[in-house]
Design goal:
alpha/beta; Rossmann fold; 7-stranded mixed beta sheet; 3-stranded antiparallel beta sheet; 6 helices; 24% helix; binds 6-phosphogluconic acid
């Protein structure tokens, strides 16, 4: 059974006993949001991260989701991408294609991968240009409080250092306020060249889910969610959707240092 922590400004915390249980609840959550968005807007604009997250989405390729999800209405983006060829093992596009997108009937024209023939800087500005067009046509909604795109769902992972997307601790990209998509060429996690959504875009989404497993991330999860010093500049702690809903999908190991997961004395 999943424990649900109290919802507060740090979001709703869902802790799972096993990876299988986490994966089941995660795909249920995604399928529900997809149904709601398609009903309300006619589209489901979802942005994926890389890393271990994709392996937890495999159940979407199985019954009942492979038949019940309205795949033709999905528009698929990347929160961050490594600037490598699309067929490179480091490519987040390749990871999602092999693990999910090639196994469900998404529309190829609705899959927005980066241009892998240009520099990181150009790839970021082209990706932002594509986003601007889709916001104009309202395929991606627009935030009421800023001009940022309002994704129906942004899925994030988190590194042991507390990074999300390709927003790393103490990196200048963390404070980017004007661009929707920026680039870095010195990622501490290889490969070094990446593009990434900026915090204003992440925090404009209708729904953000941060999916984190494993004990190597327990300390960062504690710093990201618990009441700690307010000057803590961990990227994961800066994820605070202004008008949206934040949910943390954790396993017991990742949640092991979390105050909200400890039984009351
Ligand atoms: C990437 C990411 C990155 C990832 C975290 C967690 O492309 O590297 O999008 O933010 O989600 O590093 O990765 P793991 O789940 O594999 O640890």
């Amino acid at each position: 059974m999943a424990d649900s922590g109290r919802p507060d400004d740090r979001g709703e915390v869902r802790i799972h006993d096993s990876l299988d249980e986490l994966a089941t609840e995660l795909v249920d959550y995604i399928a529900e949001l997809s149904e709601m968005s398609v009903k309300e807007r006619g589209f489901f604009a979802i942005a994926l991260s890389g890393g271990s997250l994709i392996s937890l989405l495999g159940k979407l390729c199985e019954a009942p989701y492979n038949r019940t999800v309205d795949w033709a209405k999905w528009h698929i983006f990347w929160v961050d991408e490594r600037v490598v060829a699309k067929n490179h093992t480091d490519s987040n596009y390749k990871l999602a294609k092999d693990g999910l997108l090639s196994k469900v009937p998404v529309v190829p024209g609705h899959v927005y991968s980066i241009n892998d023939n240009v520099s990181a800087e150009e790839a970021a500005s082209e990706y932002e240009f594509v986003l601007r067009q889709l916001v104009r046509s309202r395929t991606v909604s627009v935030s009421e409080s800023s001009d940022c795109p309002k994704f129906d769902l942004i899925l994030l992972g988190m590194g042991p250092d507390g990074h999300v997307a390709s927003l790393f601790p103490h990196h200048a990209a963390l404070s980017e306020k004007d661009e929707w998509v920026t680039f870095i060429t010195d990622s501490p996690k290889p490969p070094p060249e990446r593009i990434t959504f900026t915090l204003p875009v992440i925090n404009s989404a209708s729904n953000v889910a941060v999916v984190v497993t494993g004990s190597s991330k327990a300390e960062a999860i504690h710093l990201a969610i618990d009441d700690v010093a307010s000057d803590c500049a961990l990227p994961a702690r800066m994820v605070r959707p202004a008008n949206g809903k934040l949910v943390w999908f954790l396993d017991r190991s990742a949640a092991s240092k979390l105050a909200v997961s400890q039984p009351d004395e």
